[in-house]
Amino acid sequence: MALEIKTIRCKNCGAQIFYDASKQVLKCEFCGSEYLPHEEKPLTEELKADKILTFKIEESSAIKIFEKWITRGFWQPKDLAREFRRTGAKGIYIPCWHFSFSVNTYWYGQERREKKGEGKIVGGKREAVTVEEWIPRSGSRTESYSLFVPASGGLSMEEVNQLAQFPLEESAPFSSEYFLGKQGEIPVLSRDNAWEKAKEEAISDEKSYAESQVDRLEKFDINFSEPASTLIYVPIWVFGYKYHGKYYRTVINGRTGEIYGKKPISKLKVALAILIPAVVVGVVVLLTHLF
Ligand SMILES: [Zn+2]
Question: Where are the transmembrane segments (predicted)?
């Protein structure tokens, strides 16, 4: 039997997912809100991508990783481990653009140096002064980049990037048959728009590097090679949990088990972390005045 795929759009966060029509979908894993039944519709266009990386971490292992993570952490409130309520765990295929390219950068600037100069004579002695001098510096470098740009409307770029690398070399040619029993997201970013984002990231990296080489950057040039681009579906477990009524989201790399998510922060622990060093400094200041 051929796999029937339906799509649904979340009215709350705007995420557009597709799913195996033999499975029911009641809730949006991205924001935790309930779906309205009339929003379901059959897929109008065929799903297309270049590659797919399938799940290696099964649901039971993902839950273990999540439970270990939620019960440990220095900054979290003490009752989080007891009070959190997991609202779901869904394996979702997230579309990502991958770009592999190289850049050539050239920069020019000035390096600041200080040297001792001769000052005025005061009371028979010559004052020591420092004189600033600027020396021209330039350089160039060639760097290779391998960047993922999520085409996801539900997850943020930060969440996908924090999951570290997805092993592209293990990916398979795309087929929608992999979506059996799973959910996926419709890409919301075209190749051209994703390429612009990848370029922005490379420019920012290269500019920081150039700025680290000189004290005053005056000229910065960058050239990009033609990128090799791939639209790939990557496996991500999305976990929702509630703590004192607030919804939090956690994501797990379905290939490597890397986890990333937001947690409530204990106000008491933060207050103590600020207070304790302040008290220590106060005591030290007091002691140095006393002795
Ligand atoms: Zn949603």
Answer: 270-290
Distance 97 CA to ligand 1 centre (A): 22
Annotated domain spans of the chain: 5-100+146-204+231-278
Tell how far the Cα of 34 is from the centroid of ligand 1, in angstroms: 8
What does the pLDDT average to over 252-269?
90
Q: Is 195 helix (H, G, I), strand (E, B) or coil?
A: helix
Beta-carbon contacts of residue 195 (< 8 Å; ≥ 6 apart)? 97, 99, 149, 227, 229
Q: Rounded to the nearest whole angstrom, what is the distance from the C-alpha of residue 3 to the centroid of ligand 1?
A: 24
State how beta strands 51-52 and 228-243 pair. Answer: parallel
The answer to whether 202 and 210 have CB atoms below 8 angstroms apart is no
pLDDT at residue number 279? 82
Lowest mean pLDDT among 50-59, 189-198, 280-289: 280-289
Q: What is the ipTM of this complex?
A: 0.98
* Residue 218 pLDDT: 95
Compute the distance from residue 87 Cα to the ligand 1 centre, in Å: 13
Helix (H) or strand (E) holding 70: helix 59-71
Neighbours of 72 (CB within 10 A): 10
Condensed to tens digits (0 to 9), the pLDDT of residues 149-168 reads 999 988 888 888 888 789 98
Distance in Å, CA 90 to ligand 1 centroid: 13
Distance from the alpha carbon of residue 25 to the mean position of ligand 1, in angstroms: 12
The answer to whether the beta carbons of residues 161 and 149 sit under 8 Å apart is no
Whether residue 40 is predicted with pLDDT greater than 70 in this model: the reply is no
